[in-house]
């Protein structure tokens, strides 16, 4: 009797172990697959080709380097910069314009041979007529005022600014906290207006979409696809996206997902990463040591160029505070 009971207990234990293995396998295998496909490089790489990168690298806020010794900007390979040409800092009252900041900025970039990607941003309480409870927001009734700012800015700097971007990361409340449908309307009217300007000026104005915030490998913010679905990317020349990560190996998957989305909707323009980076201080999840920062910069540019990303603009030239001494 005791022997039969022991044998039964053994069978129960074996079944329990098998069930435990199945359960653990069910939990572990998806994690393993996700790690291999998201973090690591793909099983097949793009065809090897020589990629010219003379015009490839940039930093946001290149003015961080204006006070550095002459030649520093070229020495570190900066050929592009991205800068918000703030509406509120430009039109200081209704139809009262102050261009001094951007004139001085462009004088410096031209002196250093750096091309500029200018961002149209953000709201302007001194001009808008609709009071709302939102902070970063433009009511549809005030879109004509925003378009006037776009018009004045483009006409003044059309021969000094190399590319234009409409807004920045509107999927974050920090940059747009009103109804997202109202942003889509603002974006659509702006891209159509710039297209009309191209005809009037007989000049191609390289136009970028609004890059959405993204910090998860393989994740493309749904707002980007919504813009394609709504047909409001018609006059966009460059598909722009942002990506922040501690480990640049995850960049493989993110780039592939962005390319897949563009191909899905027949996008035929270029792809640029207009923000990517790692701070060396603060509480960001992608904060790194100075040693790893150098490694991440090299990896990010090499991986991006292998997928024919045409521009990579690092955020930013310097941290706001002194880097941690690591």
Compact summary:
The protein is of the alpha/beta class and 326 residues long. It has helices spanning 2-39, 72-75, 100-111, 143-157, 180-201, 222-229, 251-264, 290-306, and strands at 57-60, 80-86, 91-93, 96-97, 115-121, 163-166, 207-208, 238-243, 270-276, 311-314.
What is the fourth-level CATH superfamily of the largest domain?
Answer: Glycosidases
**What's the helix-strand series?**
HEHEEEHEHEHEHEHEHE
Low-confidence stretches: 30-38
Biggest sheet, in brief? 8 strands, parallel
Approximate helicity band: 25-40%
Keywords:
326 residues; alpha/beta; TIM Barrel; eight-stranded parallel beta sheet; two-stranded antiparallel ribbon
Secondary-structure topology with pairs:
Blueprint: H1 2-39, E1 57-60, H2 72-75, E2 80-86, E3 91-93, E4 96-97, H3 100-111, E5 115-121, H4 143-157, E6 163-166, H5 180-201, E7 207-208, H6 222-229, E8 238-243, H7 251-264, E9 270-276, H8 290-306, E10 311-314
Parallel strand pairs: 1-2, 1-10, 2-5, 5-6, 6-7, 8-9, 9-10
Antiparallel strand pairs: 3-4
Helix pairs in contact: 4-5
């Amino acid at each position: 009797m005791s022997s039969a009971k022991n044998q039964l207990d053994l069978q129960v234990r074996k079944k329990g172990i098998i069930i435990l293995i199945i359960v653990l396998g069910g939990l572990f295998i998806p994690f393993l697959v996700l790690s291999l496909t998201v973090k690591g490089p793909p099983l097949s790489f793009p065809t090897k080709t020589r990629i010219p990168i003379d015009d490839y690298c940039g930093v946001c806020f290149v003015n961080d380097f204006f006070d550095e010794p002459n030649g520093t900007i070229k020495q570190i390979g900066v050929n592009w910069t991205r800068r918000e040409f703030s509406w509120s800092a430009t039109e200081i009252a209704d139809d009262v314009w102050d261009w001094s900041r951007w004139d001085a900025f462009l004088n410096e970039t031209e002196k250093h041979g750096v091309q500029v990607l200018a961002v149209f941003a953000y709201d302007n309480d001194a001009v808008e007529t609709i009071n709302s409870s939102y902070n970063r927001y433009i009511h549809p009734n005030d879109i004509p005022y925003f378009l006037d700012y776009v018009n004045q800015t483009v006409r003044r700097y059309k021969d000094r600014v190399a590319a234009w971007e409409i807004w920045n990361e509107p999927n974050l409340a920090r940059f747009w906290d009103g109804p997202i449908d109202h942003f889509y309307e603002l974006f659509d009217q702006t891209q159509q207006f710039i297209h009309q300007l191209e005809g009037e000026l007989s000049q191609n104005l390289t136009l970028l979409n609004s890059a959405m915030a993204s910090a998860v490998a393989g994740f493309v913010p749904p707002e980007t696809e919504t813009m394609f679905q709504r047909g409001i990317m018609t006059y966009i020349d460059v598909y722009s996206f942002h990506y922040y990560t501690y480990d640049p190996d995850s960049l493989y998957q993110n780039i592939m997902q962005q390319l897949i989305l563009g191909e899905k909707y027949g996008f035929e323009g270029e792809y640029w990463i207009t923000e990517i980076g790692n701070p060396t201080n603060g509480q960001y999840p992608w904060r790194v040591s100075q040693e790893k920062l150098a490694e991440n910069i090299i990896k990010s540019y090499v991986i991006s160029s292998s997928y024919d990303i045409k521009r990579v603009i690092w955020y930013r030239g310097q941290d706001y505070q002194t880097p941690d001494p690591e």
